[in-house]
Design goal:
alpha/beta, 11 helices, 5 strands, 2 domains, Glutathione S-transferase Yfyf (Class Pi), Chain A, domain 2, five-stranded mixed β-sheet, Glutaredoxin, binds glutathione
Amino acid sequence: MSSGITEFALGKGQACPPLKPGVLRLYSMRFCPYAQRTRLVLEHKQIPVETVNVNLKKKPEWLFEMNPTGVVPVLQWGDHVIYESATCNDYLDEVYPQNKLNPTDPYQRARDRQLWESMGKLIGSFYDVGPGIRNNDRTALNRMLRAFTRYEKELVSRGDGPFFGGKKVCMADFMLWPWFERLSVLNALVPETTITDSNFPHLSSWMRHMYELPAVKKTMFDREHHAHFMKTLKIDKNPDYDYGLVKASRL
Ligand SMILES: N[C@@H](CCC(=O)N[C@@H](CS)C(=O)NCC(=O)O)C(=O)O
């Protein structure tokens, strides 16, 4: 439920728009998978928020004042500043209890957390699979397929699906999703990374159901946008943060 400011990324030397009293703000980058985790929760809970997109190559000074590590997402609510996607999402789930996402049972919460906290390897392989295959090294691909196998088994063990949260989506679903949305870019380069009803049936059904969620529909980009952004980020080393925005709509 974004209530605007400007979608164009603000960079070094550009002022931070003044904060409106009582308005929750998200500092984001349109193609950032971590910020998408938080955007998914904001949408799912229908929390009004204004978004300020940041140029992460030429970071504005004020980003470091809010988050010393200089990464997004960052939430700002008056003088409260919260960063790290998992922390932002736990905060939102507590402060806005509607459509609760974290399980109340501590063991279940811990198990869910394990699912996304160990995602680092999958995220790493995401960018390594293509070059790996070109160099005849399947290590990253195998790592990725092992991660898919793990998520497939987890969905099977949870039984009543289609989500990691069962019939209803939970925090783990949103924490994992952004990398699966971007998978289609890799599928086009390395077909073995494609999740289908025959190789990973539960994961495949999970993805279909995720795509149907209003929060996913609201926050997602299609393959062409992700592919373009990844190319400008990884190959051109000149990320196109504003890709797809119409210049005339600049406020
Ligand atoms: N652990 C952080 C990771 C956030 C992150 O790496 N965000 C990227 C954008 S996708 C970023 O801000 N990168 C800027 C940088 O690394 O300097 C989280 O979960 O929020």
